[in-house]
TrEMBL record, chain A:
<protein>
    <recommendedName>
        <fullName>Cytochrome c-type protein</fullName>
    </recommendedName>
</protein>
<feature type="binding site" description="covalent">
    <location>
        <position position="159"/>
    </location>
    <ligand>
        <name>heme 4</name>
    </ligand>
</feature>
<comment type="similarity">
    <text>Belongs to the NapC/NirT/NrfH family.</text>
</comment>
<feature type="binding site" description="axial binding residue">
    <location>
        <position position="126"/>
    </location>
    <ligand>
        <name>heme 3</name>
    </ligand>
</feature>
<keyword id="KW-0249">Electron transport</keyword>
<keyword id="KW-0472">Membrane</keyword>
<dbReference type="Pfam" id="PF03264">
    <property type="entry name" value="Cytochrom_NNT"/>
</dbReference>
<feature type="binding site" description="axial binding residue">
    <location>
        <position position="168"/>
    </location>
    <ligand>
        <name>heme 2</name>
    </ligand>
</feature>
<feature type="binding site" description="covalent">
    <location>
        <position position="68"/>
    </location>
    <ligand>
        <name>heme 2</name>
    </ligand>
</feature>
<feature type="binding site" description="axial binding residue">
    <location>
        <position position="44"/>
    </location>
    <ligand>
        <name>heme 1</name>
    </ligand>
</feature>
<keyword id="KW-0349">Heme</keyword>
<dbReference type="GO" id="GO:0020037">
    <property type="term" value="F:heme binding"/>
</dbReference>
<keyword id="KW-0408">Iron</keyword>
<dbReference type="InterPro" id="IPR051174">
    <property type="entry name" value="Cytochrome_c-type_ET"/>
</dbReference>
<feature type="binding site" description="covalent">
    <location>
        <position position="162"/>
    </location>
    <ligand>
        <name>heme 4</name>
    </ligand>
</feature>
<feature type="binding site" description="covalent">
    <location>
        <position position="41"/>
    </location>
    <ligand>
        <name>heme 1</name>
    </ligand>
</feature>
<keyword id="KW-1003">Cell membrane</keyword>
Amino acid sequence: MNKKWFIVILLAIGGLLGTGASLVTAEIAHSTGDAAFCGSCHSMEPMANTFKLDVHGGNNSHGFVAQCVDCHLPQDSVVSYMLDKTKHGINDVFVENFTNTDEIDWIARREERERFVFDSGCLSCHQELLDRKDAENPKSLQTHAHYKNQLASGDPIQCVSCHVTVGHNGMLRSELNKRHPEYSFKSK
Amino acid sequence: MLTLLLTVTASWVYADAEPDWKSLADEYTLKPHHQKLKFDCVMCHQGNDPEEFEPLESENCLSCHGSAKKVADRLQFMDPNHTNPHNSFHDGLSLDCYECHAEHEPSTNLCADCHTTTSWMGKVP
Amino acid sequence: MSENSSRRNFLKLGLGAAAMAPVSALGLSSAAFAATDPNDIQWDDEMDVLVIGSGMAGMIAAIRAAETDASAKVVVADKMSRLGGSSLISGLNMAVVGSDLQKNIGITDDSWELLLKDIEREAKGYNHRELTEVAAKGTLKLYNFLKDHGVEYDMSIGGGTGVKKLGGHSRARCVWPQGGGTEVIKKLQGYCKTQLTNVEIRKKILLDEILRNDEGRVIGVKVREKYRFSRKHDDLGDNDNPELNSSGKVKYYKVKRGLVMATGGYNQDRKFRGDEVGTMYNAASTTQPGATGGAIKAMISAGFKPIHMTLFRFAFPIPTEDIRWGILVNPRTGERFVDEYNNNDRQAIGMAILEERRHIDGEHTVLIYDQKGAEHYHDQQRFHLSLDGKNGINGTIWKFDTLEALADNFKMNTNLLKANVDKYNKNMAQDQDEFHKPKGVLKGASSISQAPYYAMQLNPRYNYAQGGAMISPRAEAIDVVTGEPIKGAFVCGEASAGTYGYIRLTACSTIDCGTFGIVAGENAAKTIPWA
């Protein structure tokens, strides 16, 4: 066999292997993004349980279910998505297995929601939302116009700045209270 | 000369017509959770004339906060003790928001008027 | 010549005018109010019966008015944004003669005459018997009225019988609505919503003025709609001062048949009650914050006759008979200042506390028990409510392992406290208490010595205002000058006066609200409209 054919076959096999690896990676990335997977860790159970009750988590007339990563990983570019996914994947596995996750103050962490809930996530599904001319709740036209104004003027707010409990049906705090009650209800 | 006079008069007239939103915002401050959202006065108060602004009714608050039930459900974990301020023993879902919550002044705690609430609830936002 | 005749004419004219002048100008009779000509008023709304106040008395009056005449438009107006008045947050237990619950435990010899006697023992002669009789006779009717309108009674009371004998009552006759006043108000509101289309309940309507025409008949009211009561004042009575609270828009309501005042007491109005009884300025009150003097002032301005204004009724968060097990001390000196038994005279103990507080800039006096005292408590349920912090203002009881910890918590000097506790124990051992507290009533708790210790800032609550507008047995308001009933004006519940006296017997406010609420509502609906 001459060199030219060798290289061609190498490239073909490499291409096949590469495609296969990409498809498998994509499949792995996809199957490690839903509530069944994320919720399999103890520390994520309250989040998964409340998500199930939410309109985004299956509690709707279409049976539509979003994945955790649809909101909790950036959806604006594949690169930032994969980078964040890898970073969190390593971090989460380490923290879940080698630290005591019961010591994490999830109730307080909710106040940092703007850090880990991405507008690109919301907007990748709710594509027409910001341009609507009518709405079930007319107030939303005013508030979404405000969002667009802030974005345009370089001083943005985020979807979850206002939509504090989206995705978890307003029940996350209560669910977390089952493990870490905020109030003792005790006598003096 | 006439043009100069007209310009000066016009700007004086128009300056009066537009309310001084900045100093109003400084005087009528927003609570931190609303300030973060970079709201201006007209997000809550209708119309363009601050002189005509009235204290909000509960429906105004609920145009964003949904419904009394939705607000109460967020504090579900307080229901077993009947200490959920939004679904209490005495009032259920029937309280007006402003019984406790104020925007331009500190809020008050209606329950604490009679009860010692320190072990049941936190600060009223 | 012409000058003389003109002077004569002038005199003639003058005398003639004087003869035609209203009788009042000559001082032969006078009115207590400024008459309003209905034609001068631009009425914004009209109704047949207007009930001011949405507590138990007001709701019952509105329901009875609406039931008496289904064509009558009945409006309930309350100045607060939270309806229900003091009734909403009260236990609302009631004395009932002849209930099924009483019969079930074998009591067949109770009577309205016996209840009347019990009430008058406490009233000490201040009451108007014809009014007290209305309340005493109407208890069973009220009990059934509430049942018919959705109220259930608490069967866990009295060991499962639903009925209990309270202090001052000579028979077991007191019953509790299930869920207290909250349930009563909810049920009555629900009844109006679902069964009575002619009753409308409006909130945030402040009564400013009661309008009477030149014949003295009540024709309407001046109100302020969208009024905002503010709980931020140290003296809640400030809300009645238009200079301190000018919220709301003035409107005029034409009231065609009857105005029913069910506005409760003025217990939260420091200045108003402090003017009647000096030390009362500092008392606490667990009535609703809206219980201020505005309504009684409006009634007085309109010529309603006020009586019993200096009388008051204290309540403690714990039963009066459970105060005796402890010692009451001045936190600054550690010293006692009163006999804590005092023949169970709640008024006397309360006044002693308020007077002592006056000497220490209003700081609270402290009631201290030891474990023996806690075990002797009659009302263990109330004791635990206090330990949970659920017993209202100054109702919390704190628990301490040592007297030092107790003293520390209330910023008391431990040595002073200990010295006074020792003095008390020593004297009481020989029944020689310096305040003549009898050892005999203390049973096994005649010393403060066994840990843990319990303490509370015992402060009397001014929770019932006997004072108010005098009424007839038909719930009609009385004119202060003529002494006659005012046409078109009715008063019921705590806002009225005369049913009770020096003290109101426990479990009797409800029967006053309810029986007179029924009477006022029926009579208001039956009043012939003036327009």
